[in-house]
Write a structure and sequence with these properties.
By secondary structure, the protein is α+β, with helices and mostly antiparallel strands. It has one domain: DD-peptidase/beta-lactamase superfamily (Beta-lactamase), CATH 3.40.710.10. It contains twelve helices and 14 strands. It has helices spanning 20-40, 86-98, 128-132, 153-158, 178-181, 183-191, 195-204, 216-221, 265-268, 274-287, 294-300, 373-389; strands at residues 5-10, 45-52, 55-63, 79-80, 213-214, 229-240, 246-254, 270-272, 305-306, 320-325, 330-334, 337-346, 349-356, 361-367. The protein starts with a strand and ends with a helix.
Length: 393
């Protein structure tokens, strides 16, 4: 299946140290490589954006919202962001902290008094700062499986009294979704506002992220949404690669949007278009200081806990020399440049976003299928971008 280019906008900006021909070559190569990778895995639909400073320099969409091929993906099509939601939650929490409305040293039990762990006194040691940096000491992805079982959050929280921490808080990294969701009652307690309305007021509206929202109910009311797809099977095409391996066609099945991870909105509850993410990237690059102040961006991207496992990520590992988690963001050292990054994965969707303050560029890609091709696309982008934009003023 060949992808149709449904919308493509390239805005050429003047960059003093980059030859115009080299710059155009980069954009063309990027477009072709992404199209090739998506086509190789028959991904139903996707969209990506590249920003440089305060400008969108490339935004492109591919494919369709579902397998009926009736509605094309465009730059305003809404996807689920999955764990790319975490930077938004961390931003709100850190904003409130800097405004002295929320103390990140407070224990989570102050806001969830029924939260307990098997080890006496262990729950009281977990602070909001540990939630933000995945350094709670809990086993990774604690009780994520229960989100699929139609359990209420109250019932899931009651199960933590069976859990023994694997380390003291701030001593080891353990990625969490349910525990990240504990930020919501803390944020709502100090603001007396719903998490969704606060995110709308403090981030979405001032940044003009017009398609962004929180929650499944809003997602289901929108008309221009990318529907989720899971892999049904791989079919031999009868063709072979140069190495003699069978070339297979990936067959995807459209499925219903699952409500499970929407229960933990700070962890995975945000919906947005690629246009929304372009504005989010531009702001995180420091171009909207009235919304995201320099002090806020600095605190969010301060390395908090080492994430050694990331150094072994496929496609990324040959480029990474260091990896940490900050507040809601991963902080990578990639070929000599910091990349502030996050990925997301829920049933039927994948998302990747990252920006480099030293290169002054950002990249995001959204797809409506559970394909690992997104990892290759992102790592390839940063490899190419580093070669083109390094030492550019």
């Amino acid at each position: 299946m060949l992808f149709r280019f449904l919308s493509v906008i390239f805005i050429l900006c003047s960059i003093s140290n980059v030859n115009a021909a080299q710059y155009n070559s980069f954009k063309k190569k990027l477009s072709n490589s992404i199209n090739t990778e998506l086509n190789k895995f028959s991904v139903p639909g996707a969209a990506y954006v590249v920003v440089k400073g305060d400008k969108v320099i490339a935004i492109e969409s591919f494919g369709y919202t579902d397998k009926t091929n009736k509605q094309k993906i465009n730059e305003n099509t809404v996807f689920r962001l999955a764990s790319v939601s975490k930077p938004f939650a961390a931003t709100i929490a850190t904003m409130l902290s800097q405004e002295k409305k929320l103390n990140l040293s407070d224990p989570i039990t102050k806001f969830l008094p029924n939260f307990a762990l098997a080890s006496k006194g262990a729950a009281e040691k977990i602070q909001l700062t540990h939630l933000l940096s995945h350094s709670t000491g809990l086993m990774p992805n604690a009780y994520d499986n229960l989100l699929h079982e139609n359990w209420s959050m109250a019932k899931i929280i009651s199960r933590f009294d069976r859990v023994t921490p694997i380390c003291q808080p701030a001593k080891c990294y353990g990625y969490q979704n349910i525990a990240y969701g504990f930020l919501q009652p803390a944020i709502e307690a100090v603001t007396k506002r719903s998490y969704a309305s606060l995110l709308q007021e403090r981030v979405f509206t001032p940044l003009k992220m017009d398609n962004a929202s929180v929650g499944i109910d809003v997602f289901l009311t929108k008309n221009n949404t990318a529907q989720p797809h899971i892999l049904r099977k791989r079919v031999k095409t009868g063709k072979k690669t140069r190495a003699g391996k069978d070339i297979r066609r990936y067959v995807w099945r459209t499925v219903n949007v699952e409500p499970d991870y929407y229960k933990v909105a700070p962890a995975a509850g945000v919906n947005a278009s690629i246009t929304d993410l372009s504005k989010w990237l531009i702001a995180n690059l420091g171009n909207n200081p009235e919304v995201l102040s320099p002090a806020l961006l600095s605190e969010l991207t301060t390395p908090r806990i080492k994430t050694k496992k990331d150094l072994r990520r496929r496609y990324w590992r040959e480029h990474l020399t260091d990896a940490h988690y900050g507040y809601g963001w991963r902080i990578y050292q990639f070929a000599g440049h910091p990349i502030i990054y996050h990925s997301g994965w829920v049933a039927g969707y994948r998302a990747d976003i990252g920006y480099s303050p030293t290169l002054d560029i950002g990249f995001a890609i959204l797809i409506n299928a559970e394909s690992n091709v997104i990892n290759k696309i992102s790592s390839d982008f940063w490899t190419q971008a580093q070669q083109v934009f390094d030492n550019v003023d």
